[in-house]
Amino acid sequence: MRTATVHELKVKRHKRLRKKVAGDLSRPRLAVFRSNRHISAQLIDDATGSTLAAASTYEKSLKIKDTGNVAAAQAIGKLIAERAEQKGIKKVVFDRGGNKYHGRVAAVAEAARENGLEL
Question: Is the pTM value of this prediction over 0.70?
Answer without folding.
Answer: yes
